[in-house]
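Let's practice the habit of predicting before peeking. Look at the sequence and jot down your guess about where helices and strands might fall. Then scroll down.
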Amino acid sequence: MKTIDNFQRLFFFSVAAVLTFTSTAHAQNEIPDGPLLRPAPEFSQWTITLSYPDERGKKADDKPPIPGLENRVHQIVTTKTKNIVHEETIDGKGVKSEKWYVGSTQYRKDPGATVWYENSAGTMGKTQQDFHYTPLPPSGFRDLDWINADAYAGTIAYGKGKCLVFIPGGGSATNAAVVTTLPTVALIDSETRLPVEVHNGGIIRVFQFADQAPAMQTLPPDLAEEIKKGDEGRARLDQRPPRPY
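Done guessing? Here is the structure:
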């Protein structure tokens, strides 16, 4: 009889432990209220710093990098003021390239160029995609459209606060040491719901948002002049020729 009581007690505690673990795991992955990823504020500026697997943990006596790798993007500074967005890209050699977005139209100036190139969804016609046209998604953040409730894996302490963790296919995230080793993961600030860090394909993107909102942007003078001349040229072409009498 005593043996049966002990067995019953052990069974009871085992079931209780399983239920507690299940309840904790469920609470850990309970979808938080509000949007999981907020779009970039109307007036905001953020810097994305990129690092690559071959660069992390590199020692002074390591072999020199493969030629061309220094052309990889290392930093992107984006300034958004309503429908005008400025995106500055900097590679490993410090060379900068610029893009301005005015609504759905993109203007780009390549390194060393003296003119701006206009790109839009219809630049190359309906059947051919313009590979130069790289508009920002509605959120303002590229490659984060996979973030949804199914990918939510819990909340962890990270940096100076807490982050929502998203893993393709979902899962359970418990601590930063494990999360930061995953090949694909997104960490979103639990308060602001803006991206903090994203790992994908070995590339780590770290986001830093400016504390102060930027003032309304104006286009650089040379770009504004090019747009003005283009508009004037199109207006002349649209004018009907005078009648021959």
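How did you do? The domain at 43-209 is CATH 2.50.20 (outer membrane lipoprotein receptor (LolB), chain A).
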